[in-house]
Design brief:
This protein is mainly α. Helix content is about 60%, strand content about 0%. The protein folds into two domains: about 100 residues, no CATH class; about 45 residues, no CATH class. It is built from seven helices and no strands. It is globular and about 45 Å long.
């Protein structure tokens, strides 16, 4: 599998969603490699929308496009978020840093494995973008 889209890519204003769709489709095709559908980052999207991972996976299995899935997300989300809420959440997620000792430990372990000298990697989005880049041959 090629790297899924960056967490920063938006669909209907939602960050995380395009990457989750890529991983879900790859999982259905049996080509997800080390990328896992319904990982902790995906669950942030599921919690924000109150959509179940299984329901989304069922929609993906029908072959729906990103735009069709977006329409389904908007229809099925029990939280009925306005566009301003989606934008505020997306901005927050894109700036989110490890917020407790356990998250800082995990973040540091991953960063130390792929680029221990990088001091500019501070958000989860930064870290996962770098991890994707390095995983596909880029130099940290």
């Amino acid at each position: 599998m090629a790297s899924p889209r960056s967490l920063r890519v938006r669909l209907g204003g939602f960050v995380i969603l395009p990457r989750t769709l890529d991983k879900g489709r790859a999982t259905i095709a049996g080509k997800n490699g080390r990328y896992q559908f319904n990982c902790p980052m995906d669950r942030r999207f599921f919690e924000f929308t109150n959509i179940s991972p299984n329901s989304l996976m069922n929609q993906l299995a029908t072959g729906k496009t990103d735009e069709s899935i977006l329409g389904w997300v908007r229809k099925m989300s029990s939280k009925n978020r306005g566009q301003w809420e989606i934008e505020a959440w997306a901005d927050y997620e894109s700036r989110r840093v490890p917020n407790d000792a356990e998250e800082r430990k995990i973040f540091s372990q991953i960063l130390n494995q792929i680029a221990p000298s990088r001091e500019d990697i501070v958000t989860w989005f930064d870290l996962l973008d770098l991890d994707d880049y390095v995983s596909y041959g880029g130099k940290p």
